[in-house]
Amino acid sequence: MSWELTADRPIYLQLIDHIKMNIISGEFAPGSKILSVRELASRACVNPNTMQRALSELEKLGLLYTQRTNGRFITENLDVIENARESFAKNHTKKFSDRMSQLGLSKAQIINLVEEFSEEDLQ
Amino acid sequence: MSWELTADRPIYLQLIDHIKMNIISGEFAPGSKILSVRELASRACVNPNTMQRALSELEKLGLLYTQRTNGRFITENLDVIENARESFAKNHTKKFSDRMSQLGLSKAQIINLVEEFSEEDLQ
DNA sequence: ACCATTGTATTATGTGTTTACCACAGTGAT
DNA sequence: ATCACTGTGGTAAACACATAATACAATGGT
Fold it and tell me: How far is residue B59's CA from residue B21's CA, in Å, rounded to a whole number?
Protein backbone atom coordinates (compact mmCIF):
# COMPACT_ATOMS: atom_id res chain seq x y z
CA MET A 1 0.00 0.00 0.00
CA SER A 2 1.29 3.44 -0.93
CA TRP A 3 1.67 6.27 1.55
CA GLU A 4 -0.49 8.96 -0.04
CA LEU A 5 0.67 11.89 2.02
CA THR A 6 -1.24 15.14 1.77
CA ALA A 7 -0.25 18.68 2.63
CA ASP A 8 -3.20 19.48 4.87
CA ARG A 9 -1.82 17.70 7.92
CA PRO A 10 1.61 17.27 9.49
CA ILE A 11 3.38 14.42 7.74
CA TYR A 12 4.48 12.72 10.95
CA LEU A 13 0.84 12.41 12.03
CA GLN A 14 -0.08 10.82 8.71
CA LEU A 15 2.81 8.40 9.08
CA ILE A 16 1.57 7.47 12.55
CA ASP A 17 -1.91 6.77 11.23
CA HIS A 18 -0.60 4.75 8.34
CA ILE A 19 1.68 2.51 10.36
CA LYS A 20 -0.86 2.18 13.12
CA MET A 21 -3.33 0.90 10.56
CA ASN A 22 -0.76 -1.61 9.32
CA ILE A 23 -0.41 -2.90 12.85
CA ILE A 24 -4.00 -3.05 14.03
CA SER A 25 -5.21 -4.54 10.74
CA GLY A 26 -2.75 -7.36 11.26
CA GLU A 27 -0.79 -6.56 8.11
CA PHE A 28 2.27 -6.28 10.33
CA ALA A 29 2.38 -9.38 12.52
CA PRO A 30 2.96 -9.04 16.28
CA GLY A 31 6.61 -9.53 17.16
CA SER A 32 7.83 -9.10 13.61
CA LYS A 33 10.70 -6.80 12.77
CA ILE A 34 9.94 -3.71 10.74
CA LEU A 35 12.15 -1.93 8.25
CA SER A 36 14.80 0.48 9.48
CA VAL A 37 14.09 4.15 9.95
CA ARG A 38 16.13 5.01 6.90
CA GLU A 39 14.49 2.40 4.72
CA LEU A 40 10.96 3.35 5.79
CA ALA A 41 11.77 7.01 5.26
CA SER A 42 13.10 6.26 1.82
CA ARG A 43 9.98 4.32 0.80
CA ALA A 44 7.67 7.03 2.08
CA CYS A 45 9.77 9.72 0.37
CA VAL A 46 10.18 11.40 3.72
CA ASN A 47 13.08 12.61 5.82
CA PRO A 48 14.46 10.03 8.27
CA ASN A 49 13.93 12.52 11.10
CA THR A 50 10.23 12.72 10.30
CA MET A 51 9.87 8.95 10.19
CA GLN A 52 11.82 8.71 13.43
CA ARG A 53 9.36 11.04 15.06
CA ALA A 54 6.40 8.97 13.96
CA LEU A 55 7.99 5.73 15.15
CA SER A 56 8.85 7.08 18.57
CA GLU A 57 5.26 8.25 19.00
CA LEU A 58 4.05 4.75 18.17
CA GLU A 59 6.47 3.47 20.74
CA LYS A 60 4.86 5.68 23.37
CA LEU A 61 1.55 4.07 22.46
CA GLY A 62 3.08 0.66 23.08
CA LEU A 63 2.58 -0.55 19.53
CA LEU A 64 6.30 -0.77 18.81
CA TYR A 65 9.43 -1.45 20.84
CA THR A 66 13.09 -0.90 20.08
CA GLN A 67 16.23 -2.97 20.41
CA ARG A 68 18.73 -0.17 20.52
CA THR A 69 21.08 -1.01 17.68
CA ASN A 70 19.30 -3.98 16.27
CA GLY A 71 16.00 -2.75 14.95
CA ARG A 72 12.38 -2.11 15.79
CA PHE A 73 9.60 -4.61 16.33
CA ILE A 74 5.83 -4.81 16.53
CA THR A 75 4.65 -5.38 20.08
CA GLU A 76 3.85 -8.92 21.12
CA ASN A 77 1.18 -7.65 23.48
CA LEU A 78 -2.01 -8.64 21.70
CA ASP A 79 -4.17 -6.72 24.17
CA VAL A 80 -2.57 -3.43 23.22
CA ILE A 81 -3.20 -4.12 19.56
CA GLU A 82 -6.78 -5.23 20.12
CA ASN A 83 -7.51 -2.18 22.27
CA ALA A 84 -6.12 0.11 19.63
CA ARG A 85 -8.20 -1.64 17.02
CA GLU A 86 -11.41 -1.33 18.98
CA SER A 87 -10.98 2.29 19.93
CA PHE A 88 -10.08 3.10 16.35
CA ALA A 89 -13.28 1.53 15.08
CA LYS A 90 -15.45 3.11 17.76
CA ASN A 91 -14.00 6.59 17.45
CA HIS A 92 -14.27 6.68 13.69
CA THR A 93 -17.79 5.34 13.71
CA LYS A 94 -18.91 7.86 16.30
CA LYS A 95 -17.34 10.77 14.46
CA PHE A 96 -18.80 9.65 11.16
CA SER A 97 -22.24 9.15 12.62
CA ASP A 98 -22.21 12.53 14.36
CA ARG A 99 -21.22 14.39 11.24
CA MET A 100 -23.89 12.74 9.16
CA SER A 101 -26.53 13.50 11.79
CA GLN A 102 -25.43 17.10 11.86
CA LEU A 103 -25.96 17.17 8.11
CA GLY A 104 -29.57 16.34 8.78
CA LEU A 105 -29.49 12.69 7.79
CA SER A 106 -31.62 10.21 9.71
CA LYS A 107 -30.19 6.99 11.09
CA ALA A 108 -31.87 5.06 8.27
CA GLN A 109 -30.42 7.38 5.67
CA ILE A 110 -26.94 6.98 7.11
CA ILE A 111 -27.25 3.21 6.99
CA ASN A 112 -28.43 3.41 3.41
CA LEU A 113 -25.39 5.45 2.44
CA VAL A 114 -23.07 2.95 4.06
CA GLU A 115 -24.90 0.12 2.32
CA GLU A 116 -24.39 1.89 -0.95
CA PHE A 117 -20.70 2.68 -0.56
CA SER A 118 -19.55 -0.39 1.29
CA GLU A 119 -18.40 -3.34 -0.74
CA GLU A 120 -19.26 -6.89 0.07
CA ASP A 121 -16.41 -9.02 1.40
CA LEU A 122 -14.50 -10.95 -1.19
CA GLN A 123 -14.42 -14.24 0.61
CA MET B 1 -22.32 25.30 18.46
CA SER B 2 -18.78 25.84 19.70
CA TRP B 3 -15.73 25.83 17.48
CA GLU B 4 -13.63 23.08 19.06
CA LEU B 5 -10.36 23.83 17.33
CA THR B 6 -7.55 21.32 17.67
CA ALA B 7 -3.82 21.68 17.19
CA ASP B 8 -3.34 18.80 14.77
CA ARG B 9 -4.60 20.67 11.71
CA PRO B 10 -4.27 24.24 10.40
CA ILE B 11 -6.92 26.37 12.03
CA TYR B 12 -8.08 27.97 8.82
CA LEU B 13 -8.93 24.52 7.42
CA GLN B 14 -10.94 23.70 10.53
CA LEU B 15 -12.77 27.01 10.21
CA ILE B 16 -13.59 26.19 6.59
CA ASP B 17 -15.02 22.82 7.57
CA HIS B 18 -17.01 24.31 10.41
CA ILE B 19 -18.63 27.10 8.41
CA LYS B 20 -19.17 24.84 5.43
CA MET B 21 -21.08 22.51 7.71
CA ASN B 22 -23.19 25.42 8.96
CA ILE B 23 -24.10 26.22 5.38
CA ILE B 24 -24.79 22.78 3.91
CA SER B 25 -26.74 21.69 6.97
CA GLY B 26 -29.03 24.66 6.45
CA GLU B 27 -28.17 26.23 9.78
CA PHE B 28 -27.14 29.30 7.81
CA ALA B 29 -29.97 30.12 5.41
CA PRO B 30 -29.21 30.88 1.75
CA GLY B 31 -28.95 34.61 1.11
CA SER B 32 -28.63 35.49 4.77
CA LYS B 33 -25.93 37.81 6.02
CA ILE B 34 -23.21 36.34 8.19
CA LEU B 35 -21.31 38.03 10.98
CA SER B 36 -18.38 40.28 10.15
CA VAL B 37 -14.87 38.92 9.89
CA ARG B 38 -13.91 40.58 13.15
CA GLU B 39 -16.97 39.29 14.99
CA LEU B 40 -16.55 35.73 13.73
CA ALA B 41 -12.86 35.83 14.61
CA SER B 42 -13.68 37.05 18.07
CA ARG B 43 -16.20 34.28 18.70
CA ALA B 44 -13.83 31.61 17.46
CA CYS B 45 -10.98 33.09 19.51
CA VAL B 46 -8.95 33.39 16.35
CA ASN B 47 -7.09 36.16 14.59
CA PRO B 48 -9.17 38.10 12.03
CA ASN B 49 -6.57 37.30 9.38
CA THR B 50 -7.10 33.60 9.92
CA MET B 51 -10.89 33.92 9.70
CA GLN B 52 -10.48 36.09 6.63
CA ARG B 53 -8.47 33.35 4.99
CA ALA B 54 -11.14 30.73 5.69
CA LEU B 55 -13.92 32.96 4.38
CA SER B 56 -12.13 33.79 1.15
CA GLU B 57 -11.59 30.08 0.53
CA LEU B 58 -15.31 29.47 1.01
CA GLU B 59 -15.91 32.27 -1.46
CA LYS B 60 -13.81 30.45 -4.05
CA LEU B 61 -16.05 27.43 -3.52
CA GLY B 62 -19.09 29.59 -4.27
CA LEU B 63 -20.67 29.10 -0.87
CA LEU B 64 -20.28 32.77 0.12
CA TYR B 65 -20.18 36.06 -1.70
CA THR B 66 -19.06 39.52 -0.65
CA GLN B 67 -20.53 42.98 -0.90
CA ARG B 68 -17.34 44.94 -0.64
CA THR B 69 -17.98 47.23 2.29
CA ASN B 70 -21.31 45.91 3.36
CA GLY B 71 -20.82 42.39 4.54
CA ARG B 72 -20.76 38.77 3.49
CA PHE B 73 -23.68 36.54 2.55
CA ILE B 74 -24.54 32.89 2.03
CA THR B 75 -24.99 32.07 -1.64
CA GLU B 76 -28.53 32.03 -2.99
CA ASN B 77 -27.54 29.32 -5.45
CA LEU B 78 -29.25 26.28 -3.99
CA ASP B 79 -27.54 23.95 -6.46
CA VAL B 80 -24.12 24.87 -5.16
CA ILE B 81 -25.23 24.15 -1.62
CA GLU B 82 -26.90 20.87 -2.52
CA ASN B 83 -23.87 19.72 -4.49
CA ALA B 84 -21.59 20.49 -1.59
CA ARG B 85 -23.91 18.62 0.73
CA GLU B 86 -24.02 15.53 -1.44
CA SER B 87 -20.31 15.35 -2.10
CA PHE B 88 -19.66 15.87 1.59
CA ALA B 89 -21.88 12.92 2.49
CA LYS B 90 -20.49 10.68 -0.23
CA ASN B 91 -16.86 11.46 0.44
CA HIS B 92 -17.14 10.91 4.16
CA THR B 93 -19.09 7.71 3.76
CA LYS B 94 -16.60 6.34 1.26
CA LYS B 95 -13.62 7.21 3.41
CA PHE B 96 -15.27 5.75 6.51
CA SER B 97 -16.25 2.58 4.73
CA ASP B 98 -12.78 2.11 3.22
CA ARG B 99 -11.04 2.53 6.54
CA MET B 100 -13.30 0.06 8.26
CA SER B 101 -12.83 -2.48 5.48
CA GLN B 102 -9.08 -2.06 5.74
CA LEU B 103 -9.42 -2.86 9.43
CA GLY B 104 -10.85 -6.19 8.40
CA LEU B 105 -14.49 -5.49 9.17
CA SER B 106 -17.14 -6.98 6.92
CA LYS B 107 -19.93 -4.90 5.45
CA ALA B 108 -22.35 -6.37 7.98
CA GLN B 109 -20.03 -5.56 10.85
CA ILE B 110 -19.67 -1.99 9.67
CA ILE B 111 -23.43 -1.60 9.49
CA ASN B 112 -23.75 -3.03 12.98
CA LEU B 113 -21.27 -0.51 14.34
CA VAL B 114 -23.17 2.35 12.75
CA GLU B 115 -26.41 0.96 14.14
CA GLU B 116 -24.86 0.93 17.56
CA PHE B 117 -23.38 4.41 17.53
CA SER B 118 -26.05 6.26 15.57
CA GLU B 119 -28.89 7.80 17.50
CA GLU B 120 -32.48 7.70 16.36
CA ASP B 121 -33.92 10.98 15.11
CA LEU B 122 -35.70 13.10 17.71
CA GLN B 123 -38.76 13.95 15.71
C1' DA C 1 39.29 -7.31 14.30
C1' DC C 2 36.47 -5.29 10.76
C1' DC C 3 32.46 -3.18 8.85
C1' DA C 4 27.85 -2.33 7.41
C1' DT C 5 23.65 -1.41 9.79
C1' DT C 6 20.93 -0.09 13.68
C1' DG C 7 18.59 3.77 16.55
C1' DT C 8 19.55 8.29 18.19
C1' DA C 9 21.05 13.14 18.53
C1' DT C 10 22.49 17.76 16.86
C1' DT C 11 22.66 21.86 13.99
C1' DA C 12 21.06 24.73 10.37
C1' DT C 13 17.75 26.17 6.87
C1' DG C 14 13.38 26.91 4.50
C1' DT C 15 8.50 27.03 4.61
C1' DG C 16 3.79 27.47 6.32
C1' DT C 17 0.68 28.94 9.96
C1' DT C 18 -0.89 32.12 13.22
C1' DT C 19 -0.81 36.26 15.50
C1' DA C 20 -0.61 41.43 16.42
C1' DC C 21 -0.81 45.77 14.50
C1' DC C 22 -1.66 49.20 11.23
C1' DA C 23 -3.68 51.38 7.15
C1' DC C 24 -7.05 52.23 3.38
C1' DA C 25 -11.55 52.75 0.82
C1' DG C 26 -16.40 52.41 0.56
C1' DT C 27 -21.03 52.00 2.85
C1' DG C 28 -24.94 53.40 5.71
C1' DA C 29 -27.00 55.75 9.45
C1' DT C 30 -27.06 59.97 12.02
C1' DA D 1 -20.47 66.03 6.70
C1' DT D 2 -19.43 62.88 10.25
C1' DC D 3 -18.54 58.44 12.05
C1' DA D 4 -18.75 53.68 13.06
C1' DC D 5 -18.39 49.62 10.50
C1' DT D 6 -17.40 46.84 6.44
C1' DG D 7 -13.86 44.03 3.63
C1' DT D 8 -9.14 44.18 2.23
C1' DG D 9 -4.19 44.65 2.26
C1' DG D 10 0.53 44.80 4.16
C1' DT D 11 4.40 43.97 7.53
C1' DA D 12 6.76 41.81 11.20
C1' DA D 13 7.40 38.36 14.70
C1' DA D 14 6.88 33.77 16.86
C1' DC D 15 6.33 29.12 16.30
C1' DA D 16 5.87 24.33 14.39
C1' DC D 17 7.05 21.36 10.76
C1' DA D 18 10.09 19.28 7.37
C1' DT D 19 14.37 18.72 5.42
C1' DA D 20 19.51 18.22 4.83
C1' DA D 21 23.69 16.90 6.54
C1' DT D 22 26.42 15.02 10.17
C1' DA D 23 27.93 12.43 14.01
C1' DC D 24 27.96 8.74 17.53
C1' DA D 25 27.53 4.23 20.03
C1' DA D 26 26.26 -0.49 19.86
C1' DT D 27 24.99 -4.71 17.45
C1' DG D 28 25.60 -8.74 14.28
C1' DG D 29 27.83 -11.08 10.65
C1' DT D 30 31.98 -11.80 8.19
Answer: 14
